[in-house]
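Is this the right way to post structure tokens for a design question? Let me know if I should format differently. Anyway, here goes:
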């Protein structure tokens, strides 16, 4: 970078961003103590809401954690969500024609199908070659408590064009949109000077900042990275992405984009609140109780392994003012001259480990069930174990339908749209955005498969109920009367994820129905009775339905 050519700085934008950040950060203050308490027991290494000055590697953040059910459960919870929403190594979504041309995808030209397939494959190649799955796993762990934040940025590396960052929640504050969704994001963090220059190569730094970095490349700066939506701008420039230095109140970078690089997602939101409430936040009382029971159990075991002894203080064996009550210690006491007690004896400690273990097991089972990590122990029958695991997973999905319904529009859809926009910006294709009209997104993840299987199961129950109600003979007629039989095969193919290129489109269906109608008409004409001869015969004597024809003249027994 040229340290001499530095443009004049405009401080108006920086002042506006800093003012809006202060207001958003003031609203965030009401959550800090609650989040600090939960993070300290679930994600202790990220518990920096109330304690800011922590030197990495110098403090033991987990010293007060005695029960690790919630810590391990958060990791398994995030892995379970990834396996159900966006499993690695599988195509969990596909780009298709939008609502404007819905139903015509199978009739679309080969070029259109190939283009959509190429776009889908390109997005998956970019995601799989990046650090996406590692970053989204970290963000989903934070979402188990409250809100996950994922940052998407482009790089100069052709082989790895995108990089993802799991932004810690303690660095963020937000502004709500018109529907109380998280719209504007502000991130405050410290960055070394040399890393700051490499992070934003297009940024324009003031001469004073460049001088500081030149003298000390490891000098730290407080950066506010933000994205603010401007509804008065065109759709391809409605998001204002900026980088502001809080120390000098200067704007280093301003870009108007068609997307926001910040993706925020929440498992559940209460009315009037902006941050999410995850399962860990809702079950913090149980987590705190588990931690206390584990601590008491460890202390009781320590006292039983290293008992406390008592000794008369007048024996001269110890100094009573230097005694600390802990496992293995000796406690002095004032001996009675008339008593005949030994010079040292063990202190009897009453405790019941079984009580704490039973209570801990009950609370752990409820927490594990809420997390949906499904710890099934093998019982010798692999098929039964696999079936039980599948049933437990389906039960967890049913109990979390609202969460999955929220994660699809808050995580999956924005993620694909953002990556699509960035790749367009980098010149991968000309289509700028996914608007749902021309190009749409269809999800084929396991969670969607589970819902589709439920739809097919309900349809089977409907058909069985018809057979039991009206009988097997009339069931087909009744089924066709209630269900459009011409659309049923297409619907069933969609529910079972049959590949779209081999499915018939609307034009193909119309041609097939016309051909079937013509064939039925030809069969009807062939089945019509032939012209009869005078007297009502056409070579054979006609009889009533179910009646045998009369014998021909001269035909009889003995002839």
């Amino acid at each position: 970078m040229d340290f001499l050519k530095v443009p004049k700085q405009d401080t108006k934008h920086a002042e506006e961003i800093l003012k809006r950040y202060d207001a958003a950060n003031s609203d965030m203050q009401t959550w800090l103590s609650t989040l600090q308490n939960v993070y300290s027991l679930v994600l202790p290494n990220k518990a920096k809401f109330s304690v800011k000055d922590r030197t990495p590697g110098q403090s033991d953040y987990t010293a007060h954690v005695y029960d690790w059910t919630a810590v391990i459960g958060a990791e398994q919870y995030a892995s379970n969500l990834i396996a159900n929403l966006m499993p690695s190594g599988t195509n969990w979504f596909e780009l298709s024609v939008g609502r404007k041309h819905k139903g015509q995808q199978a009739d679309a030209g080969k070029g259109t199908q190939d283009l959509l397939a190429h776009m889908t494959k390109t997005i998956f190649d970019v995601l799989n070659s990046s650090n996406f799955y590692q970053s989204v796993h970290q963000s989903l762990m934070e979402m188990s408590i409250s809100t996950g934040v994922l940052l998407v940025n482009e790089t100069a590396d052709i082989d790895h064009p995108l990089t993802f960052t799991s932004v810690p929640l303690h660095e963020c504050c937000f502004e709500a949109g018109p529907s109380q969704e998280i719209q504007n994001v502000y991130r405050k963090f410290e960055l070394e000077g040399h890393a700051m220059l490499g992070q934003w190569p297009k940024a324009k730094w003031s001469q004073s900042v460049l001088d500081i970095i030149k003298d000390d490349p490891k000098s730290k700066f407080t950066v506010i990275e933000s994205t603010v939506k401007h509804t008065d701008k065109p759709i391809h420039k409605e998001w204002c992405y900026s980088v502001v230095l809080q120390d000098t109140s200067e704007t280093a970078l301003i870009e108007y984009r068609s997307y926001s690089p910040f993706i925020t997602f929440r498992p559940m939101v209460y009315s009037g609140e902006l941050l999410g409430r995850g399962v860990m936040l809702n079950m913090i009382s149980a987590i705190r109780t588990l931690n206390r029971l584990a601590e008491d159990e460890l202390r009781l075991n320590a006292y039983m392994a290293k008992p406390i002894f008592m000794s008369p203080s007048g024996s001269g064996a110890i100094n009573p003012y230097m005694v600390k009550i802990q496992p293995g210690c000796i406690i002095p006491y004032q001996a009675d001259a008339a008593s005949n007690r030994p010079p040292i004896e063990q202190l009897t400690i009453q405790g019941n480990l079984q009580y704490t273990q039973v209570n801990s097991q009950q609370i752990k089972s409820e927490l594990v069930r809420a997390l949906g990590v499904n710890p099934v122990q093998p019982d010798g029958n692999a098929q039964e174990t696999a079936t039980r695991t599948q049933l437990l997973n389906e039960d967890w999905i049913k109990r979390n339908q609202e969460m999955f319904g929220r994660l699809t529009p808050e995580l999956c859809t924005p993620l694909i749209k953002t990556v699509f926009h960035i790749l367009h910006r980098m010149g991968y294709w000309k289509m700028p955005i996914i608007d749902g009209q021309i190009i749409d997104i269809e999800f084929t993840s396991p969670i969607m498969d589970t819902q589709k299987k439920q739809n097919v199961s309900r349809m089977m129950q409907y058909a069985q109920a018809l057979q039991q109600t009206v009988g097997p003979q009339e069931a087909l007629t009744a089924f066709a009367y209630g269900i459009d039989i011409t659309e049923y095969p297409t619907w069933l193919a969609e529910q079972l994820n049959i590949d779209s290129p081999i499915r018939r489109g609307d034009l193909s269906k119309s041609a097939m129905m016309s051909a079937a109608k013509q064939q039925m008409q030809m069969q009807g004409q062939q089945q019509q009775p032939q012209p009869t001869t005078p007297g009502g015969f056409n070579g054979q004597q006609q009889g009533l339905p179910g009646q045998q024809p009369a014998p021909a003249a001269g035909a009889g027994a003995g002839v």
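Format looks fine. Someone answered above. Worth noting: The chain has a mean pLDDT of 80. The first helix runs from residue 11 to 28.
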